[in-house]
Amino acid sequence: MAIELITYRGAKAQPLTALQSLFVDAFFECDGKISCVAKRIERSVEHASQINKVSKVQRAIAMRTRTMVRNVGKMPDFAISKPERLELLWRIANQGIELIYDKEGNQVMSAPATSVSAVRTINEMLPGSLAPKEVDINVKVEDKRTEQEIRDSIQALTAEYTKLASIEGVTEKDISKTRELPDITDV
Question: Which of 172, 165, 82, 69 is nearest to 126 (CA)?
Fold first, then answer.
């Protein structure tokens, strides 16, 4: 149990009393619920409310809150593995289909929508379960050349290929990645 020091502008630091320090610690443990704080410090709710109104205590709570907010960026990330997520989702799905009794005495599922959502998420996580068999990819390439420029380019490449193939000592293996060029009369 640490006693926090509160400084006022232009004044010396004034420590919290032991009870006030306990109150501040309990305040954060109970998420600010005064009834819970009162039980923690073994006081009545009225007494805990009075302690909460003391300006030193309010400043101590504000300072600790600011410190916690500043340290949030320094906290490690909460991460769980894919198998752990799947197990958690499976438990959620099973809890949603547990049978309970409604007001009329009928047996119903406790949370069917939650189960459906959990199963849908599981299906999205597992490869191949709902994955599409084929993926259509449409890529539009803007070719700013005219049709005549494309024909001229094909003719030049065909001529160069023919010239390379007619050189003595050059074989088809020497010409890398040869492809059959389209006949320009078909275009």
Answer: 82
